[in-house]
Every structure is written in structure tokens, then in C-alpha cells.
């Protein structure tokens, strides 16, 4: 009994001392910088309310991440089907009378006192669900059977199509990138990747050529090429974002001093365009620093995937890395006018509870994979 208790205590102590604190501190730093940027963008109209909610979301997210780190890895694998089913139920609920439409996308479920975005849960579900299927019989030097790959692609297609039906093109593309990354690293035939890429292109073309996209979303894509197309709507917003970032110079105008930000010229700046606050008020140096920390989190995800001792952990970490990498590139790209506006938040930084919780659960998954090797020592 004493030896068993001693072993348990040793494993618990090892978990805390060998936790990837660099990853945790980087993610926490992004969240706290995000709190400052959100406060600066909203203090003129809402006082400290957004700041308080962002900090509360961060605290809950950190708690979720640390809890996930300490769940037995076999339990996470066993829960994967249930997490996947829960995400599907949420996506179906969005399309029911429970869903609400914001900015042309029916992406939210309103509950008493708060709302949730099930597409964020779907990102977590795909990371662990696809890993469970493709790691069942496939190992590092042995690709998964074709039947398992076909099953994984089919299961990925269901939430992707449900998200497209909202329609939320940005989140759908993130789910596609997660799926492509996990399938590629699993060792599956490249023809599966070619087929998936063709399917993604076909879905985007179908969304563009059919009434699936709302007029608002169509204008957001068109404004990427020519902001003058909708000068009073999204075109105006895109122009103001570019002006804000360009006016920041090397060192910025100072927190709370940005002309465009404090003038309230950029709608939804605390969510989709929070990077423009960094560009204007922190300047090139501050915005570049933010990107370096985000890059560190993504790099840690891929390094953890590389060092994973089993296929399940390797594929989970790969999925998380693809998710955070693509979403960061897309958000920053649309702020800089290099990519179309899709409404994706900047991970850990943008205001939003669902996104914050999902990102911190992703950190928890990475931390769990990181600890698996160390736990095997005891």
C-alpha cells in the first residue's frame, strides 16, 4: 500500500515538475496580451465589461487545459467517440431553432446567460477522433489500413458539411486543414490527400456558386480583392483595419492611444480584427512579438508530435498544430489584407469564450502527450 501510494505521488509530482511550462506560459501570455488589446478596443463603449469577461474566459480555459493535461491518456482515447458525437449534436442544434445568426452565419447556440459556438468543439473532436481511428492499427512505420482512412475521411466530412451549412466557411476550412494534417502524418496514401484537396476546392466553389453564402459573407470575400465594392460595409472595415495597422509604425501609438481603435472606426475589433489593435498601438515590434509567441506555441505542438511515443499522441498533436497554425495565419492574413475576411478569431487573443476554451483544451492535449513518456518512467 505504501509503495503504491509512493508511486502515485511520484507520478503526480513528475507531472507538475515536467509539465511543458513554456507552452503554458506562452499561451497564457497570449491570453493576457489579448485581454489588454480587447480592453483597449472596447473601453470607450463598454468600459471594463469585455476585459472582465475575457479574463474570466481565460481563467476557465486555463483550468480546462490543466485538467485535460492530467487525465489519463487512455481515458482521452476512450472519450473520443463521445466528444465527436457531442460536437455533432452541437452542430445540429445550431441549425435548429436553438441556433442564432450573427453576421450572416448561424453559428451560435444561445443559452440562458451565455452562448456557445459548437464549431470550436468540433475542432477538438476531430483532433482526437481522427487520431483514434487512424492510430488503431497504424503505427509510425506502418500506414493505417485503407478502410480506416476511408472511415476517418467520412467522419471528418460530417462536421465539415454541417459547418458549411451554417454557413461558416472559415471554420470549415480549419476542420479541413486539421483532417489533411492528421491523415498526411498517419502515413495514408497521398491519393487520399489529393482527393481531400479536390473535395475542399469543390466545396468552396459550390459555396460560392450557390446561395449557400449570405450576401454579407459574399461581400466579405469580394472586399478582399476590391474594398471599394462595399464602401459602407465590409469594404470600409477592411480599409480601416489596413489604415490602423499602417499607422502604428515601428513602436505603435501606445496602448489606449490608437486613433482608429479609440475612434471606434473598426467594428468587431475585439474579435476578428484584434490584431489591428496590436498593429496600431504596439506597432511593428509589438505585433511581431505577438506573432513570435504564437509561432512558439505552434512549433511546440509539432515538436511534441515529433517526439510522441505512440501514433495516437503524434496524430493528436499534429491536428492541434495544424489547427493553430492555419487559424493564426488566416486571422493575421485577413488583418493585413493578404487573405479574405472569414471571421476566424486569433487563437488565445481574440475575445470569445468558445474559442478560448477550445484553444486551452488544445494546450491540455499537447501537455498530455508531452507527459506520456515521462509517466512511463514510473
From TrEMBL:
One GO BP: regulation of cell shape
GO cellular component terms, semicolon-separated: cell division site; plasma membrane
Record-linked InterPro entries: Cell_cycle_FtsW-rel_CS, FtsW/RodA, RodA/MrdB
Location(s) in or outside the cell: Membrane
PROSITE patterns attached to this UniProt entry: FTSW_RODA_SPOVE
Biological or metabolic pathway of the protein: Cell wall biogenesis; peptidoglycan biosynthesis
Catalytic activity, EC: 2.4.99.28
GO molecular function, one term: lipid-linked peptidoglycan transporter activity
Entry keyword annotation includes Transmembrane helix: yes
Its membrane topology: Multi-pass membrane protein
Catalysed reaction, written as an equation: [GlcNAc-(1->4)-Mur2Ac(oyl-L-Ala-gamma-D-Glu-L-Lys-D-Ala-D-Ala)](n)-di-trans,octa-cis-undecaprenyl diphosphate + beta-D-GlcNAc-(1->4)-Mur2Ac(oyl-L-Ala-gamma-D-Glu-L-Lys-D-Ala-D-Ala)-di-trans,octa-cis-undecaprenyl diphosphate = [GlcNAc-(1->4)-Mur2Ac(oyl-L-Ala-gamma-D-Glu-L-Lys-D-Ala-D-Ala)](n+1)-di-trans,octa-cis-undecaprenyl diphosphate + di-trans,octa-cis-undecaprenyl diphosphate + H(+)
NCBIfam families assigned to the protein according to its UniProt record, in alphabetical order: rodA_shape
UniProt-recorded name of the protein: peptidoglycan glycosyltransferase
The organism's taxonomic lineage, starting at the top: Bacteria, Bacillati, Actinomycetota, Actinomycetes, Micrococcales
Amino acid at each position: 500500500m505504501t509503495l503504491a501510494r509512493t508511486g502515485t505521488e511520484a507520478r503526480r509530482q513528475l507531472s507538475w515538475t515536467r509539465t511543458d511550462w513554456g507552452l503554458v506560459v506562452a499561451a497564457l501570455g497570449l491570453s493576457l496580451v489579448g485581454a489588454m488589446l480587447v480592453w483597449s478596443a472596447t473601453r470607450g463603449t463598454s468600459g471594463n465589461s469585455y476585459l472582465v469577461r475575457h479574463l474570466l474566459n481565460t481563467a476557465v480555459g486555463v483550468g480546462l487545459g490543466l485538467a485535460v493535461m492530467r487525465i489519463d491518456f487512455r481515458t482521452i482515447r476512450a472519450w473520443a467517440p463521445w466528444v465527436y458525437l457531442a460536437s455533432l449534436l452541437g452542430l445540429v442544434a445550431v441549425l435548429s431553432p436553438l441556433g442564432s445568426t450573427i453576421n450572416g452565419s448561424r453559428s451560435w447556440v444561445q443559452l440562458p446567460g451565455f452562448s456557445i459556438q459548437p464549431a470550436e468543439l468540433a475542432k477538438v473532436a476531430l483532433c482526437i477522433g481522427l487520431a483514434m481511428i487512424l492510430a488503431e492499427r497504424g503505427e509510425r512505420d506502418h500506414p493505417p489500413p485503407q478502410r480506416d482512412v476511408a472511415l476517418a475521411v467520412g467522419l471528418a466530412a460530417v462536421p465539415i458539411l454541417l459547418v458549411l451549412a451554417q454557413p461558416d466557411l472559415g471554420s470549415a476550412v480549419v476542420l479541413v486543414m486539421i483532417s489533411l494534417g492528421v491523415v498526411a502524418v498517419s502515413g495514408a496514401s497521398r491519393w487520399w490527400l489529393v482527393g481531400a484537396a479536390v473535395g475542399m476546392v469543390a466545396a468552396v466553389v459550390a459555396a460560392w456558386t450557390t446561395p449557400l453564402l449570405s450576401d454579407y459573407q459574399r461581400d466579405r470575400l469580394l472586399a478582399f480583392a476590391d474594398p471599394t465594392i462595399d464602401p459602407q460595409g465590409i469594404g470600409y472595415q477592411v480599409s480601416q483595419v489596413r489604415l490602423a495597422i499602417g499607422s502604428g509604425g515601428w513602436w505603435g501609438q501606445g496602448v489606449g492611444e490608437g486613433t482608429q481603435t479609440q475612434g471606434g472606426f473598426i467594428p468587431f475589433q475585439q474579435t476578428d480584427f484584434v490584431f489591428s489593435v496590436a498593429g496600431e498601438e504596439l506597432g511593428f515590434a509589438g505585433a511581431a512579438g505577438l506573432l513570435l509567441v504564437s509561432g512558439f506555441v505552434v512549433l511546440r505542438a509539432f515538436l511534441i508530435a515529433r517526439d510522441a511515443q505512440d501514433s495516437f499522441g503524434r496524430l493528436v498533436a499534429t491536428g492541434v498544430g495544424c489547427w493553430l497554425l492555419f487559424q493564426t495565419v488566416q486571422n493575421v492574413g485577413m488583418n493585413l489584407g493578404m487573405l479574405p475576411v472569414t471571421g476566424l478569431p486569433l487563437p488565445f487573443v481574440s475575445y470569445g469564450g468558445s474559442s478560448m476554451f477550445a484553444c486551452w483544451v488544445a494546450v491540455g492535449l499537447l501537455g498530455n502527450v508531452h507527459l506520456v513518456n515521462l509517466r512511463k518512467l514510473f
